[in-house]
Specification:
19% strand, single chain, 3 domains
Length: 287
């Protein structure tokens, strides 16, 4: 708001008091900062420089309101800049007007190359994704019309890489008209990685439990089999035609026993290529 709109002084260009008092030197470009303009007419007196008129300005309702507004704006801007979650605001045409440092880090885009230039549709992975979210924010779901209360979505950085986020947003209105929207973009990559790591740990535990059960049930039969094969080897002379077959059996038993030992010491899960394009558990466990 400009000072002449608030005070109704009539000294704006074409105002009702221009013929009598002249046009205010704050008009037309300094209506929100008239305190810094010399020669304004306040409380019926022509004012001097900012330093000389400050006491008078401090008693002016318009000056106090603008000071509070500017202070609030400064605090709001600092909060936006310090917020660890990406904040992106757009005007009614979908052009980005707010882009905090967290949003810069998330999308790997510099604020100067985005503000007033980038369309919000370019932030999402597809036009269909942008339309889906716009439809949701206007629907009664997820918080009610004009509010989006935590919805999973996908955005893309400047390299075209997809990034999972959780989005909170609201529509801004002035005089019942939609003038833009603001969204809070929470980066879910670390959370997704943690979830994946948890799944891997759970999978490892399942495999190790299975391996433990296999070892438990095979340990005693294997020891008996090894003992029987060794006794058989002692009883068959080296020149016996059947000794070669027994040695092959002994070698097979040792191979099985060696594999069981590998399972016993399994500490991580890796797979290896197998016949037909399938994959099997890599018992060698090498990175």
């Amino acid at each position: 708001m400009n000072c002449w709109e608030f005070t109704k002084c009539g000294r704006e260009g074409g105002g009702t008091k221009v013929a009598e008092l002249g046009t205010c030197p704050a008009w037309p470009d300094h209506g929100a900062s008239c305190a810094r303009v010399a020669g304004t007419l306040c409380q019926g007196e022509v004012q001097g420089s900012y330093a000389k008129k400050l006491d008078s300005c401090n008693s002016c309702d318009f000056y106090r309101i603008t000071q509070v507004t500017q202070h609030s704006h400064t605090i709001s801007q600092k909060l936006v800049d310090l917020c660890p979650i990406g904040i992106i605001g757009v005007n009614r045409l979908g052009i980005v007007t707010i882009f905090n440092p967290a949003a810069e880090r998330l999308l790997e885009r510099e604020r100067g190359a985005v503000l007033g230039i980038l369309s919000i549709t370019e932030v999402y992975t597809s036009l269909a994704e942008a339309r889906r979210l716009k439809k949701l924010v206007h629907s009664p779901e997820h918080g009610g019309p004009g509010i989006l209360d935590g919805v999973d979505a996908m955005v893309r950085n400047v390299k075209g890489q997809s990034i999972p986020i959780r989005l909170w947003a609201f529509i801004m209105r002035e005089l019942e008209m939609e003038v833009g929207s603001v969204g809070f973009f929470y980066d879910q990559r670390q959370e997704k990685a943690s979830q994946q790591a948890l799944l891997v740990r759970e999978k490892l535990e399942s495999v190790l439990q299975l391996a433990g059960a296999v070892l438990h049930h095979l340990a005693q039969p294997m020891q008996i089999l090894i003992g029987d094969v060794n006794l058989l080897m002692e009883d068959i002379p080296n020149n016996n035609p059947g000794r070669e077959s027994v040695e092959a059996i002994a070698q097979g038993v040792q191979t099985i026993n060696h594999l069981l030992e590998k399972i016993r010491h399994l500490s991580s899960i890796r797979t290896a290529d197998y016949v037909g394009g399938s994959r099997i558990l890599d018992l060698d466990n090498k990175p």
